[in-house]
Write a structure and sequence with these properties.
Elements (H helix, E strand, L loop, with lengths): L2 H16 L10 H11 L6 H12 L4 H22 L9 E2 L2 E2 L1 H5 L1 H19 L6 H15 L4 H9 L7 H26 L4 H28 L2 H4 L5 H4 L5 H5 L1 H19 L7 H11 L4
Antiparallel strand pairs: 1-2
Helix pairs in contact: 2-6, 3-4, 3-9, 4-6, 4-9, 7-9, 8-9, 9-10, 10-14, 14-15
């Protein structure tokens, strides 16, 4: 199957499962509507797709990994809702639509993010996996989403006294962007029964893929348009935040995207029988326009 066809099929499968969530008619239905608004707003579904594909690569049944895949997407979505809030980046557009707080108000948007985070762990714990695998996976997800992962990165990104050198920026992005992407890959391996070698390979792939992905994001923030990206451009410049593109220049940043992509691909070789999907995906993301 061609890569784009497989991505479309996997995205449709994930979207179908997400559409079943938070659809009840309850006294707090406006909260549920807010949660669904962002959860079903589209997007690449990169993280849940990676969870399912790494599960398969490790020899597992992807049906058993689906709750973990959905949980990772809920964590990602909650982070986007909070990242767009007036107290954070104060962005008004996400995936071509008004951001959650613009539609539902900042208070409800905050609670929607909180509720999605809680629901992520409830959903993850429903995965039909052996208890030891399930505990291992959920602990990994919790660490990736918390202070040692995404939230720690958000703190460093928000703090005015953070190190804004290239090394400091890399740390911020490794935590804020990379930690949950690594969790997506590793949770798939754990669900599939993979062990240390496969987990280390998945972590290496995700680390370099996330770095290349973020650098490409920074380049697009300069070279693309709001219509193409579906979100405001120039936000980092507006908030006086340095990026890879502003620190290195676009030409050098482009070189680092390609170098990071090659490192991501190399990390997998020898650990899994067939790495073609992951390598093609990395190459595609390296040249994406949105």
């Amino acid at each position: 199957m061609e890569l784009q066809d497989e991505l479309s099929a996997l995205r449709e499968r994930v979207d179908g499962e997400l559409a079943k969530l938070f659809a009840g008619d309850a006294p707090y239905r406006r909260l549920s509507e807010s949660m669904r608004y962002s959860l079903l707003a589209g997007g690449k579904r990169l993280r849940p797709i990676l969870t399912l594909k790494f599960c398969a690569a490790a020899g597992g049944d992807t049906d058993t990994a689906m709750p973990l895949a959905l949980a990772v997407e809920m964590i990602h979505t909650y982070s986007l809702i909070h990242d767009d809030l007036p107290c954070m980046d104060d962005d008004g557009l996400r995936r071509g639509k008004p951001t959650n707080h613009v539609v539902f108000g900042a208070g409800r948007a905050t609670v929607a993010g909180d509720a999605l985070q809680a629901a992520a762990f409830e959903t993850a714990l429903s995965a039909p996996l052996p208890p030891e695998r399930l505990v291992r996976a959920v602990r990994y997800l919790a660490a990736s989403a918390g202070e040692r992962g995404m939230c720690g990165g958000q703190e460093l990104d928000t703090a005015k006294d953070s190190d804004r050198s290239l090394a400091g920026l890399t740390l911020i992005n490794d935590l804020k962007t990379g930690a949950v992407l690594r969790a997506a890959c590793v949770l798939g391996v754990i669900a599939g029964g993979g062990e240390k070698t496969e987990i280390a390979a998945a972590e290496g792939y995700a680390l370099h893929l996330a770095r290349a992905f973020q650098i490409r994001d920074d380049i697009l923030d300069i070279t693309s348009t709001e219509a193409e990206l579906g979100k405001p451009i120039g936000s980092d410049e507006k908030n006086a935040k340095p990026t890879y593109a502003s620190l290195l220049g676009v030409e050098e940043a482009e070189k680092r995207v390609l170098a990071g992509t090659e490192r991501a691909k190399a990390a997998l070789r020898g650990a899994f029988e067939d790495t073609s999907f992951f390598e093609e995906l990395a190459d595609t993301l390296a040249v994406r326009k949105m």
